[in-house]
């Protein structure tokens, strides 16, 4: 891998980390400064955001192309998970769909993040509406838009990586 390509992908992973940190920071600001307590789906969204942060950290450190492809595929799966949870939250907010919300996170006992880190992952509200964000969007709408955008960016990065691998194996 050449130096500009390595720098470009390192910047990609660092931007992913910064974006995930910003999203989590906004969620915590709304929770602690504005008093908007998180619901079950909001906390599940936070878990996907933390996963994206950790994947970004791994990607910034591990620069081999095959590892990058693997990390991009896991990132894409995480973005899809984020998008699915965001869409369910949007449906609940709009009163459509058949999903429900509980006062517990619903994770297995071996992954009790709501007990390990209650300040971030404890469910404190039932799902209903999400707070207003800038530009007239609700938090659910912002999350759906963010997940869609992150998915497109990840697909583009994956395409460049796979294309680079294909040309590298064909070229001498």
Count of folded domains: 1
What class, by secondary structure content?
Answer: mainly alpha
Sketch the topology as an H/E string, one letter per element.
HHHHHH
CATH superfamily: DsbB-like
- Helix residue percentage: over 70%
Tell me the Rg in angstroms.
18 Å
Average pLDDT reading: 88
Name given to the CATH architecture: Up-down Bundle
* CATH topology tier name: Bromodomain-like
Given as residue ranges, the uncertain stretches (5+ residues, pLDDT < 50) are none
Count of DSSP-assigned helices? 6
Inertia-based shape: globular
Task: Tell me how many strands there are.
Answer: 0
Under the CATH scheme, which class?
A: Mainly Alpha
Task: Describe the oligomeric state of these chains in a short phrase.
Answer: single chain
- How would a textbook summarize the main sheet? none
For the terminal residues, how far apart are their CA atoms? Answer: 14 Å
Share of residues in strands: under 5%
What this model shows, in words?
This protein has 172 residues and is mainly alpha-helical. The chain has one domain: DsbB-like (Bromodomain-like). Helices cover 71% and strands 0% of the residues. The protein has helices at 3-32, 40-61, 65-94, 113-116, 118-121, 139-170. Helix 1 (3-32) packs antiparallel against helix 2, helix 2 (40-61) runs antiparallel to helix 3 (65-94) and helix 3 packs antiparallel against helix 6 (139-170). The longest helix is centred in the C-terminal third of the chain and has 32 residues, at 139-170. It is globular and about 50 Å long. The model has no long low-confidence stretch (mean pLDDT 88).
């Amino acid at each position: 891998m050449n130096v500009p390509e390595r720098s470009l992908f390192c910047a990609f992973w660092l931007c992913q980390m910064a974006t995930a940190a910003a999203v989590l920071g906004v969620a915590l600001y709304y929770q602690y400064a504005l008093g908007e307590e998180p619901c079950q789906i909001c906390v599940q969204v936070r878990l996907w955001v933390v996963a994206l942060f950790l994947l970004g950290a791994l990607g910034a450190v591990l620069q081999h192309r095959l590892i990058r492809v693997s990390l991009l595929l896991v990132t894409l799966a995480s973005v899809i998970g984020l998008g699915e949870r965001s869409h369910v939250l949007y449906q609940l907010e709009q009163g459509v769909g058949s999903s429900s919300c509980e006062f517990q996170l619903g994770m297995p006992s071996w992954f009790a993040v709501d007990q390990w880190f209650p300040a971030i992952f404890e469910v404190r509200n039932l799902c209903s509406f999400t707070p207003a964000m800038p530009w007239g969007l609700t938090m659910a709408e912002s999350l759906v838009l963010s997940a869609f955008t992150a998915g497109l960016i990840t697909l583009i990065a994956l395409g460049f990586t796979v294309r680079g691998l294909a040309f590298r194996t064909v070229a001498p």
